[in-house]
Structures are given as structure tokens and as C-alpha cells.
């Protein structure tokens, strides 16, 4: 599950570390699913060609400030303007953010056009 957290036209990203997958790359935060929360379903093929389903959520209101609750798996968290996302953002996260911005409830990522 992925979370697109939006504040003042920016999205929160985390820098992956010590997970064994895409360490050193930026990603949207992940977590668990509660009923009625997803806004996007993304059929994703990772760089190794393995099929994945990504469920995305978006939040524009919350209480408190985001913190790095898993410093062993995340080196840093930071806010990025939608039009200045880092180049090393995982493609599934980029696809989810793009779908959110354009109001699309389903996306494909990593699959050949056909």
C-alpha cells in the first residue's frame, strides 16, 4: 500500500535504505489498508519483470507532522513540489503521483505498450 501525502502543492517522499529493494531511491511511504481508503490501483511490473499490484491512497489533511518512524529502512523524508520530483523516484511511485494529479483511478507501470 502506498500513501501520497500532499501539503501546499508538495508530496512527501522517503529515501529507501537497508530494505534490500531499491535502496538509495526515493519512494512514496507505504503502510496498511483500511476499508474505503484506496483511490488508485496500479498494475506494476518491477525492473525484474515481476508483476505487482500497487494500491494508492491520498491524504490532504491529517494531524501532526510526518516523521521517519523507520530510520533503519529510510535515510530521509522530504517534501517535493509535484513538478520537481527527484529523478531517482521509483517508477511505481511516479506513476501513482501522476495518476493522482490527473484524477485517474487505474494505471499501468512498467508494461510494454500494446
Automatic annotation (TrEMBL):
Q: What is this protein called?
A: DNA mismatch repair protein MutT
Amino acid at each position: 500500500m502506498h500513501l501520497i501525502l500532499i501539503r501546499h502543492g508538495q508530496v512527501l517522499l522517503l529515501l529507501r535504505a537497508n530494505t534490500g529493494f531499491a535502496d538509495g531511491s526515493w519512494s512514496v511511504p507505504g503502510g496498511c489498508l483500511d476499508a474505503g481508503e484506496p483511490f488508485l490501483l496500479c498494475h506494476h511490473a518491477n525492473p525484474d519483470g515481476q508483476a505487482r499490484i500497487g494500491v494508492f491512497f491520498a491524504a490532504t489533511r491529517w494531524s501532526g507532522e510526518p516523521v521517519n518512524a523507520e530510520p533503519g529502512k529510510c535515510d530521509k523524508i522530504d517534501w517535493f513540489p509535484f513538478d520537481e520530483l527527484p529523478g531517482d523516484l521509483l517508477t511505481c511511485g511516479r506513476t501513482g503521483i501522476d495518476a493522482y494529479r490527473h484524477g485517474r483511478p487505474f494505471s499501468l507501470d512498467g508494461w510494454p505498450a500494446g
